[in-house]
Design brief:
By secondary structure, this protein is an alpha+beta fold. The chain contains ten helices and 22 strands. It is 23% helix and 25% strand. Helix 1 (14-25) runs parallel beside helix 6 (173-185), helix 1 crosses helix 10 and helix 2 (58-72) crosses helix 10 (378-393). Bound molecules: flavin-adenine dinucleotide.
Length: 435
């Protein structure tokens, strides 16, 4: 034992560092631990870091709308010295194509309007004016490349979309974690890198700390599991899986980077696009590239991973499928023979909604199951987890009487039980990265 800490935080990704920052500000003496040698270099570094406001559920929409404001006010939120190198939020907007698959976005529009989120309905002319490289032929249902009907238009056209002008993305997600770690250090938070947690210690029916791979024990009355795709392994060694109806599991993802077609500056003029007609999302990427991710259609093989440190980091046919699907929308797209992009893991939950909760073990908490869609919510998740830990450590039973938490920017009170580990599976979810 090296020091006295009030809380240990496993993981220094964007959510782990947000929790460290918020707990340190609230007076907790925290130590964050990570097996990586650099902060933010778990799944956060591979994130597309899209900050959007539309979610399938009302609660998810409210949380994401709150989350946007921290990126907008990033420098003020952190309070770092003026010369600090900060991650940048690029507010390029987000267009979602209206399709039968997403029921023409009616529910999303209603949720956004009810919350006062700026949103516009766009005609096909407006879409073409923004994205002149786009063809609006419909190809639904999205298909695999080996399907004989792949890339055959179905005769219909996409007619309209919904545009959220305040959406955007963060150019360097690992740097955003490092920014929050630096901000946390100003409030006394400590970080130890390059050490692996192999056991969760218990005493008298409560958590007592962690054990590291070299046998060292670090003791504290509170432990927070923010291990990203490693969360299930930590929950297992903590012995807390039994009362969880919602489980977490690492899911491999490939993200494509391709150059924008000649003559169009997608990096400057493009926008984020979610397009269920071809089951792809896209956003501008550094170097006038276009980043293309998958919206996880059911018939694409889902590549679940058993070991979150040992998985195939090479591109597969999935890269080509995504690039070819996107080329249906952008016929002038050149697909280079040299594959570029990212291979990383989601920490997918049973219903693709995260778990922000206590556990059956006193003093042990979890912020996990971020399902490819919680980067944007990290700062508000940090605040909410701090309030939840204060509430439970103050003697309240969050399972019986869930914490009601006020989202500071938008002034709404939410029931934190929405994110419970033992909630019923939420049928309103898209059961995909869209949340
Ligand atoms: C390809 C991809 C695209 C994405 N795109 C978006 C997007 O556009 N918008 C969005 O909102 N979200 C997106 N996400 C999701 C988002 O990136 C994650 O929700 C977020 O980064 C998770 O942060 P985290 O802090 O929980 O986990 P991580 O960043 O994964 O951090 C967990 C840390 O825990 C450490 N750890 C694990 N086990 C141990 C152990 N036993 N001992 C010590 N350390 C341990 C790891 O080393 C790691 O650093 C995407 C994710 C991926 C993979």
């Amino acid at each position: 034992m090296t020091d006295n800490y009030d809380a240990l935080i496993i993981g220094t990704g964007v959510i782990g560092t947000a929790i460290a920052f918020e707990m340190a500000k609230a007076g907790w003496k925290t130590l964050s631990l990570d097996r990586n040698t650099q902060i933010g270099h778990g799944s956060t570094a591979g994130s597309c870091a899209i900050i959007r406001m539309h979610y399938s559920t009302f609660d998810g929409t409210a949380f994401a709308w709150e989350g946007y404001h921290y990126w907008r006010d990033w420098a003020d939120y952190l309070g770092l010295p003026n010369d600090a190198d900060l991650a940048r939020f690029k507010e390029c907007g987000c267009l979602v194509m209206k399709t039968e698959q997403n029921e023409h976005m009616q529910k999303h529009l209603e949720n956004s309007r009810a919350l006062g989120i700026p949103v516009e309905e766009w005609s096909d002319e407006q879409i073409k004016a923004k994205l002149p490289i786009y063809s609006l032929d419909s190809f639904a249902p999205a298909r695999r490349m080996d399907d004989p009907q792949f890339a055959q238009p179905n005769g219909a056209k996409l007619k309209s979309g919904v545009f959220w002008p305040l959406a955007g993305y963060v150019s360097d997600p690992a740097l955003s974690s490092q920014n929050m770690a630096d901000a946390a250090r100003l409030h006394g938070a400590k970080f130890r890198m390059g050490i692996q947690v192999v056991d969760v210690l218990q005493s008298g029916g409560k958590v007592a700390g962690v054990q590291l791979a070299d046998g060292e024990e670090i003791h504290a009355p509170v432990v927070v599991n923010v291990a990203g795709p490693g969360s299930a392994a930590i929950n297992e060694i903590a012995g807390v899986l039994d009362d969880m109806t919602i489980k977490t599991r690492p899911l491999r993802q490939e993200v494509v980077h391709v150059p924008s077609p000649a003559g169009f500056d997608f990096e400057e003029l493009g926008t984020i696009v979610s397009d269920s007609d071809i089951a792809c999302y896209a956003r501008p990427e550094h170097g006038n590239h276009i980043l293309v991710g998958s919206e996880d259609p059911e018939f694409d093989a889902h590549c679940w991973v058993n070991n979150d440190t040992d998985f195939d980091r090479d591109f597969t046919d999935q890269w080509t499928t995504q690039a070819m699907r996107y080329a249906q929308r952008v016929p002038s797209l050149g697909i280079p023979s040299k594959t570029r992009g990212v291979v990383d893991l989601y920490d997918a939950s049973t219903d693709w909604i995260p778990i922000y909760d206590k556990s059956s073990l006193g003093g042990y908490y979890m912020a996990c199951g971020s399902s490819g869609n919680q980067y944007k919510n990290a700062p508000i998740a940090g605040k909410m987890m701090t309030a939840l830990i204060d509430y439970c450590e103050g003697g309240k039973n969050h399972d019986a009487e869930p914490l009601q938490f006020r989202l500071p920017y938008i002034g709404r009170v939410i029931d934190v039980g929405f994110y419970s580990r033992n909630r019923p599976i939420n049928d309103e979810s898209s059961f995909s990265v869209l949340g």
